């Protein structure tokens, strides 16, 4: 994507490389055996890249299904002219079945009551609806337990309006091989039980981005790719031959420069004190934009807890451990002081060429960046020429 940061005069903007997304889709497809389908997961506004733009590129490059969390995401895709299959992952609230039917979306089934409501909505509309049955094997979140599905399968088969197109589960920790194998075996035991009863479901899928890289033997009929499509390897996955391209960069221009002397405190609460004479650059972004906002996970163990404590202690004493850094003119500079709502300070003492209007490349968690940040799409002209493919999946 380059380091030029050409935002056409904007003070802050997000650059999205659609050609890089296309490349990453093609890379994932190279890992799949013939006949294995690719679902492009475009939930959370395409992981911050744009729901519709990402979906169009993914379908044009060979994805045969899209995955979203909410029915309203499917509605946006349909109203944007995208007619390919769209699977809604989460269980439906009462009343949302009408949306699934009206917009020809594919629903995930997690309980018998939901199946009944969906069948009733389809019956009223005099049409059938495709469903993927979600199986709970260890994520402890949504889906039928294997025992529950075995006990209710005859009841579920009484709904002729429901087309059993798929069955799937979700791995809780793909890098934990032993637990993942346990989940996979639990899932396959159920699938094999159904098949012995004459119930053959066309699309079996279990692999998310991490699993599709780590366990090619688990690809089954379809894989669900999310993180890798956007240029990132899943956490804990390093040894792969996948050649990914970065798909986005977040920029903001320097709006002010302030020389300060050693000992000057910076920002709200005076939590940071500069350790030498330096220059502070102000960039017009803050936590209201999603900058500096991150998930705070529970430490996974003692060493993880120790790392958190060390970083916290370093921040307290003004040391750079765990400090957020930006890049200006190809050089690294630390963010200092508390990140404000709309303005943040960067120590550019080691970048003498820093000047008003110069762009800074900022790190940010992709799915928390606010939609109010202007998007600049690269490769858009090519994307306009790519016609989304519509797939007719088997019932």
From TrEMBL:
Gene3D superfamilies: Alanine racemase, Lyase, Ornithine Decarboxylase, Chain A, domain 1. It catalyses: L-alanine = D-alanine. The active site is at residues 43, 268. Its EC number is 5.1.1.1. Keywords: Isomerase, Pyridoxal phosphate. The keyword Membrane does not apply. GO terms for biological process: D-alanine biosynthetic process. InterPro entries: Ala_racemase, Ala_racemase/Decarboxylase_C, Ala_racemase_C, Ala_racemase_N, Ala_racemase_pyridoxalP-BS, PLP-binding_barrel. The modification N6-(pyridoxal phosphate)lysine is found at residue 43. Its cofactor is pyridoxal 5'-phosphate. Signal peptide: none annotated. Substrate binds at residues 141, 341. GO terms for molecular function: alanine racemase activity; pyridoxal phosphate binding. It comes from the Bacteria. Residues 247-378 form the Alanine racemase C-terminal domain. One of its GO terms (cellular component) is cytosol. Belongs to the alanine racemase family. Catalyzes the interconversion of L-alanine and D-alanine. May also act on other amino acids. This is Alanine racemase. It comes from Desulfofundulus thermobenzoicus.
């Amino acid at each position: 994507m380059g380091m030029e940061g050409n935002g056409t005069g904007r003070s802050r903007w997000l650059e999205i490389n659609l050609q890089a997304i296309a490349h990453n889709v093609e890379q994932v497809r190279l890992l799949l055996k013939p006949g294995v389908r690719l679902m492009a997961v475009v939930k959370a506004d395409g992981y911050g890249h744009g729901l519709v733009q990402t979906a169009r590129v993914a379908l044009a490059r060979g994805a045969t299904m899209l995955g979203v969390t909410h029915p309203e995401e499917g509605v946006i895709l349909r109203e944007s002219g995208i007619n390919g299959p769209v699977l809604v992952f989460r269980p439906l609230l009462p009343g949302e079945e009408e949306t699934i039917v009206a917009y020809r979306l594919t629903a995930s089934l997690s309980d018998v009551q939901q199946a009944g409501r969906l069948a009733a909505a389809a019956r009223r509309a005099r049409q059938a609806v495709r469903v993927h049955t979600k199986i709970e094997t260890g994520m402890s979140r949504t889906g039928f337990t294997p025992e529950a599905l075995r006990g209710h399968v005859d009841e579920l088969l009484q709904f002729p309006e429901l087309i059993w197109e798929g069955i799937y589960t979700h791995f809780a920790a793909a890098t934990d091989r032993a637990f993942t194998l346990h989940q996979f075996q639990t899932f396959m035991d159920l699938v094999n039980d159904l098949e012995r009863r004459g119930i053959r479901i066309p699309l079996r899928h279990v692999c998310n981005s991490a699993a599709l890289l780590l366990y090619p033997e688990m690809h089954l009929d379809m894989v669900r790719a999310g993180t890798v499509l956007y240029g990132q390897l899943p956490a804990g996955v390093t040894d792969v031959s996948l050649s990914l391209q970065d798909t986005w960069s977040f920029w903001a221009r320097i709006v002010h420069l302030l020389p300060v002397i050693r000992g000057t405190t910076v920002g709200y609460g005076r939590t940071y004190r500069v350790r030498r004479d330096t220059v502070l650059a102000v960039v017009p972004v803050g936590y209201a934009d999603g900058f500096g906002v991150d998930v705070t996970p529970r430490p996974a163990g003692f060493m993880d807890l120790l790392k958190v404590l060390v970083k916290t202690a370093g921040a307290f004493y003004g040391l750079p451990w765990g400090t957020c850094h930006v890049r200006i003119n190809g050089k690294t500079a630390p963010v200092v002081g508390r990140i404000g709502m709309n303005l943040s300070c960067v120590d550019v003492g080691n970048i003498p060429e820093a000047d008003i209007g110069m762009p800074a490349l900022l790190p940010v968690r992709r799915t928390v960046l606010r939609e109010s940040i202007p998007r600049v799409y690269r490769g858009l002209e090519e994307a306009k020429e790519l016609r989304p493919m519509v797939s007719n999946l088997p019932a």
